[in-house]
Write a structure and sequence with these properties.
The chain has a 4-stranded antiparallel beta sheet with strand order 4-1-6-7, with no helix packed on it. It has a 4-stranded antiparallel beta sheet with strand order 3-2-5-8, with no helix packed on it. It has one helix at residues 2-31, and strands at residues 38-45, 49-54, 61-67, 72-77, 82-89, 96-103, 106-114, 120-126. The termini are far apart. The radius of gyration is 28 Å and the shape is elongated. Helices cover 23% and strands 46% of the residues. The chain is an alpha+beta fold.
Length: 128
């Protein structure tokens, strides 16, 4: 009788240990999802523009002068980060200016402005 009681005790302990292990594994999967990536890319259409943009996860503002449509900038943003991009016509020629923000290669925001004096396109959005 003692052997059967001891065997039942060991069996029930081993079953409860297995169950706890499974619950822990499930909990870890649900509470630690893989982080989502936020690849941000700025592009523009302009022949001679000054660009001002947020360039990193710290919100650093960067500026580049006399850029054309071949210019683009890419960085990895954090969740809920403010994204700002401005393209300003520096040319003496009147032209439309287009600024675009892409998030994970999908258009997030775009603006085209045609102004006879300077032409400024400004985009702002949030990485989500």
């Amino acid at each position: 009788m003692k052997k059967i009681s001891l065997l039942l005790l060991v069996f029930s302990l081993s079953l409860s240990a297995c169950k706890k292990e499974t619950e822990t594994s499930t909990t870890n999967i649900n509470t630690n999802p893989a982080p989502k990536t936020y690849k941000v890319k700025y592009t523009m259409v302009c022949t001679d523009c000054e660009v001002v943009y947020v360039s990193d996860t710290l919100g650093t503002q960067s500026t580049a002068f006399h850029q054309n449509s071949t210019w683009s900038y890419t960085f990895n943003a954090k969740k809920n980060q403010e994204l700002l991009f401005l393209a300003y016509n520096q040319s003496s020629t009147i032209q439309a200016v287009t600024a675009t923000i892409l998030l994970n290669d999908t258009m997030l925001s775009t603006q085209t402005t045609y102004c006879p004096f300077n032409g400024v396109a400004f985009c702002a959005d949030t990485a989500r």
